Amino acid sequence: MVKICCIGAGYVGGPTMAVIALKCPKILVTVVDISISRITAWNSDQLPIYEPGLDEVVKQCRGKNLFFSTDVEKHVSEADIIFVSVNTPTKTRGLGAGKAPELTYWESAARMIANVSTSNKIVVEKSTVPVKTAEAVERILTFNSSNISYQILSNPEFLAEGTAIQDLLNPDRVLIGGRETPDGQKAVQALKDVYSHWVPEDRIITTNLWSAELSKLAANAFLAQRISSVNAMSALCEATGANVSQVSNAVGKDTRIGPKFLNASVGFGGSCFQKDILNLVYICECNGLTEVAKYWEQVIKVNDYQKNRFVNRVVSSMFNTVSGKKIAILGFAFKKDTGDTRETPAIDVCRGLLGDKAWLSIYDPQVAEDQIKKDLSMNKFDWDHPVHLQPSNTAAVNQVSIVGDAYEATKDAHGICILTEWDEFKTLDFQKIFDNMKKPAFVFDGRNIVNVKKLREIGFIVYSIGKPLDPWLKDTPAVTRDK
Ligand SMILES: *[C@@H]1O[C@H](CO)[C@@H](O)[C@H](O)[C@H]1NC(C)=O
Ligand SMILES: *[C@@H]1O[C@H](CO)[C@@H](O)[C@H](O)[C@H]1NC(C)=O
Ligand SMILES: *[C@@H]1O[C@H](CO)[C@@H](O)[C@H](O)[C@H]1NC(C)=O
Ligand SMILES: *[C@@H]1O[C@H](CO)[C@@H](O)[C@H](O)[C@H]1NC(C)=O
Ligand SMILES: CC(=O)N[C@H]1CO[C@H](CO)[C@@H](O)[C@@H]1O
């Protein structure tokens, strides 16, 4: 029986291993993590992450060929294939701070593997890592082990949160990078054999190690770039009276471009896009490719610009001040169908409004109160560093209340900001909401999900990203505020 061990029971490791266990009943899969609370949750009825379909898969396999354990060394030592799915946060201090990835967790995982291994191992990079990590890991592993052979593979994960299980069951492609030596190719084949239990052969792509590592960064950079491109257009649409939905639709009909990822929004979020681009920028800079670095850096700048622009629009529309006003925030997760708030644009928008002394009433169907408070009081990038989770700025949180539904959040509010495209926000009773709000009542739709015409008929003043402006808003051009 082949034994697989995955180090790291997070958003990638947990769902990926659950699907491998489901599709390969003859493979024994163990997910290990040093966090006792996380492993306890994986072994309970309340899984530590929310993902449609995940519960069913875990229930079906757990205790049969899928196990969650904190006994890291035992399972690593027994495994044939070790997936490493640990964090690679952005460095917050030292050389490359704000850009370079922190490889501490990777390095200690590699050292631990080297320490406990008594048989040959295939070590698979599963988390997104900077190009050339495999080489570093290889050095650590082989430096001090005379008779054990290690093969390093890169197998980046392309799943999207919110659709992780579907993405894993039916991937566009599985990418496996390995050394071009006979032993390297044997390892590639071993991992290919795992995936070919359910993934068609022609969707399993094999490359060299560095191509696989870079492909993941490139794919995320291209996706983020599409969002920044359409968001840049949305600003121009507002300025000219064009409608970004119509522009996107027309552009997306071109088969060379395609219709996906063309929705304008308040900005992209999630744990990967920004981090991977920063990573890419850092690699470019290290290789002396300044122009290439600047090109990709602009994708992040436009994203920050879009969030700022949204806050400016809110403040300027509401008579240039939100001080003391109640603003309802609908949605906090970085996108619908996930409880994940990492790098969510809601953090920057809320901070911007709090900076103008607004009172926020926040509702999200999947994000817990303490998570929101933690996010709003943490420094940038701190979410990714479990070591210093101490809130740094608790003062801001005093002006925030977290409530249990959209009607409570909007009661007596001056304005509403929709920051996540949850389906339930599309079917709210906006007449009822309007009746319970202060007038004039504003809706700022950061996800373009409301029916603008209907809301205007009710009496709302509506701002919808990239759409022709409400006459009210036209007369109050967005001012540029000091940050
Ligand atoms: C390696 O194993 C030794 C002895 O079991 C232990 O003292 C040491 O801390 C381990 N090192 C790592 C990096 O796990
Ligand atoms: C390597 O050597 C150790 C100690 O002599 C032994 O226990 C282990 O089985 C050997 N591993 C392989 C893969 O030969
Ligand atoms: C923008 O275009 C979409 C798609 O044609 C349309 O449904 C919507 O009503 C338009 N919005 C405005 C504010 O004109
Ligand atoms: C993007 O826009 C299309 C067309 O308006 C819509 O069908 C789709 O649900 C939108 N996607 C998101 C994530 O809002
Ligand atoms: C596991 C292993 O091979 N450990 C060796 C690493 O190198 C030092 C120094 O040569 C040896 O003392 C260890 O036994």
From TrEMBL:
UniProt-listed InterPro entries: 6-PGluconate_DH-like_C_sf, NAD(P)-bd_dom_sf, UDP-Glc/GDP-Man, UDP-Glc/GDP-Man_DH_C, UDP-Glc/GDP-Man_DH_C_sf, UDP-Glc/GDP-Man_DH_dimer, UDP-Glc/GDP-Man_DH_N, UDPglc_DH_euk
Active-site residues from the entry: 272
Biological processes per GO annotation: glycosaminoglycan biosynthetic process; UDP-glucuronate biosynthetic process
Binding site for NAD(+): 8-13, 33, 38, 86-90, 127-128, 161, 272-275, 342
Residue runs in coiled coils: none
Pathway stated in the Swiss-Prot or TrEMBL entry: Nucleotide-sugar biosynthesis; UDP-alpha-D-glucuronate biosynthesis; UDP-alpha-D-glucuronate from UDP-alpha-D-glucose: step 1/1
Catalytic activity: UDP-alpha-D-glucose + 2 NAD(+) + H2O = UDP-alpha-D-glucuronate + 2 NADH + 3 H(+)
Sequence ranges assigned to domain UDP-glucose/GDP-mannose dehydrogenase C-terminal in this UniProt record: 328-452
GO cellular component, one term: nucleus
EC number in record: 1.1.1.22
A Pfam cross-reference name: UDPG_MGDP_dh
Enzyme class: oxidoreductase
GO molecular function, one term: NAD binding
Keywords: NAD, Oxidoreductase
Domain of life per record: Eukaryota
Keyword NAD: yes
Entry's family note: Belongs to the UDP-glucose/GDP-mannose dehydrogenase family.
Name listed for the protein in its UniProt record: UDP-glucose 6-dehydrogenase
Organism per entry: Carya illinoinensis (Pecan)
